[in-house]
Amino acid sequence: xxxxxxxxxxxxxxxxxxxxxxxxxxxxxxxxxxxxxxxxxxxxxxxxxxxxxxxxxxxxxxxxxxxxxxxxxxxxxxxxxxxxxxxxxxxxxxxxxxxxxxxxxxxxxxxxxxxxxxxxxxxxxxxxxxxxxxxxxxxxxxxxxxxxxxxxxxxxxxxxxxxxxxxxxxxxxxxxxxxxxxxxxxxxxxxxxxxxxxxxxxxxxxxxxxxxxxxxxxxxxxxxxxxxxxxxxxxxxxxxxxxxxxxxxxxxxxx
Length: 255
Known about the structure:
25% helix; alpha/beta; 6-stranded mixed beta sheet
């Protein structure tokens, strides 16, 4: 089966660009399942029911998130009511929503996991141990992991930790598409960061002048989305239904 994963969608520009190009990409790559990271899809940060609905109606099957998922209180009930919109699995019990979702495609079951790193981010439960717990619950499903993390070392380490036990581990959060897509020794597809969908001439989606001002002055600055042309980043995973491991992993970029 073919799975398309799309990197962090940023604000209205990212949502609009996704809607414009996702149907064609799904057809081009004969996609069976589409996963989109939507934690920055609302203007001003976070995710709202409106931005999540926009992503789903654009063609996504599952939405993953990250450290901004709870920035907007209006998403709390929506996460409980919409199981295919995920928050990171290593938040404490009682947090709204769920950290993984099993999609039944008819031919196979696919478990999509959203999980967050703890290096330079919130002190959540250990993602390595949480993944062990999840894998003990999902049976023979194909498992695909969106690891929303800051440190490249933590991302790569989780990839090796899960090598041979999941189909793929790909990173989100840093918004910069890396060039290290690979198949690890035991058959797991890996990529450190699949990138961002949103304003191309930006600092992680933010107006460059505002980002520069923050670094130069060290004073608080209200970030706004950049304007101008957008780009879409992601990865296509070709997965063997029998082995539940990848046959190929290829990055995608649309400008």
